[in-house]
Amino acid sequence: MGCICKRSTRMWISWVVKICGFSRIDLLRNRQKTHRVSCGWPSLGSGYCRSGDRWSKDEWKNKAFKMGCEYMFWSPDCKESVVMGINGQFPGPTIRAKAGDTISVLLTNKLHTEGVVIHWHGIRQVGTPWADGTASISHCAINPGETFDYRFVVDKPGTYFYHGHFGMQRSAGLYGSLIVDVADGDQREPFHYDGEFNMLLSDWWHQSVHHQEVGLSSKPFRWIGEPRTVLINGRGQFNCSLAAHFSNTTSTNQCNLRGNEQCAPQILRVLPNKTYRLRIAGTTALAYLNLAVGGHKMVVVEADGNYVQPFQVEDIDIYPGESYSVLIRTNQEASKNYWISIGVRGRRPQTPQALTLLNFAPTSTSKIPLSPPHVAPA
Ligand SMILES: [Cu+2]
């Protein structure tokens, strides 16, 4: 099939002219100047609707991000696989901005044989549909070797994330956090906290993403099976458990990690009697998750970039594409550590729980909690 974008270029240009009020000649002239993506006109999207959008050196430093995506060897769950990383990192770097900022992400496709797009999940893209990362709908895939300037306004404070929206690239690991803080000035968050942590939750298989994709589109449909591992910030353990000694089967090995492995858990280090914000994002492809913090209640304060009337929960479900902020008060005994556990919801427990620790400084991180981690409800 030919590229939809190419066939509809004329229609798109008329549409952009309507929205932006530019003449067709201006647009075509600009396309020639900025054309870096071969399929149609998407480079027009680079802030074209805002006149006088020239940035100083300082603004570029604060608001522009360079990202190159590529396949690389990585061991997200202690087994070496190929992941899709950004700038040599997996997951991709966190992008942080203030509400009202225009940000620019120069994304270079370093994959050799595939197009790529990035969707900025939860960002409304008012006036910038070409930056939405919806491949072949409002935006053409970026070809290998090409760069696209995703320039858009982050208009609301909140917890967001970005991920690949081409094929099953998000299952291959193309994702990262996008955090929007309140704007400078009188603006304040409607709640207080002393520190925060990002938690990107994802599902991971040992088969390739092509295996997953072919199965999903086959007739009859072929299910890839339960995820092999659940990852917290790109880290999990597939052949051992941090809590193996609570297991009633002898087949689960206790993990013996030094802490510097790619699959070693990221421990959340906290101080007693403080309030922490956990920014949780569900970047899963197929799994529904449930998260709990041992011994601590959570107060939900934000969902998908919207403040909510705070309410308390023991555990929280996170479906693909959802994001939440919860507050926890570290008011439990500080000489202990507590499990942070994430399980697959509503399925037979074939995927081991993802685990990490809430560690009270200066308690040693080697101190294992005395009780077993919370199990996700069926
Ligand atoms: Cu998305």
Report the strand count: 19
CATH architecture of the largest domain: Sandwich
CATH superfamily of the largest domain: Cupredoxins -  blue copper proteins
The strands making up the biggest β-sheet line up spatially as 10-9-12-17-14-15
How many angstroms does the end-to-end distance come to?
A: 43 Å
Instruction: Tell me the structural class.
Output: mainly beta
Outline:
It holds the Pfam family Cu-oxidase. This protein has 5 helices and 19 strands. It has 378 residues and is mainly β.
Describe this structure in words.
It is a single chain. By secondary structure, the protein is mainly beta. It has two domains: 49-181, Cupredoxins -  blue copper proteins (Immunoglobulin-like); 195-360, Immunoglobulin-like (Sandwich), CATH 2.60.40. 11% of the residues lie in helices and 33% in strands. The protein contains five helices and 19 strands. The protein has helices at residues 4-7, 9-20, 24-34, 57-63, 209-217, and strands at residues 64-74, 81-86, 95-98, 101-109, 118-121, 147-154, 158-164, 175-181, 195-204, 229-232, 268-270, 275-282, 289-293, 298-303, 306-313, 315-318, 323-329, 337-344, 354-360. The protein has a six-stranded mixed sheet with strand order 10-9-12-17-14-15, with no helix packed on it. The model is unreliable at 1-52 (pLDDT under 50). Residues 119, 121, 163, 165, 321 line the site of copper (II) ion.
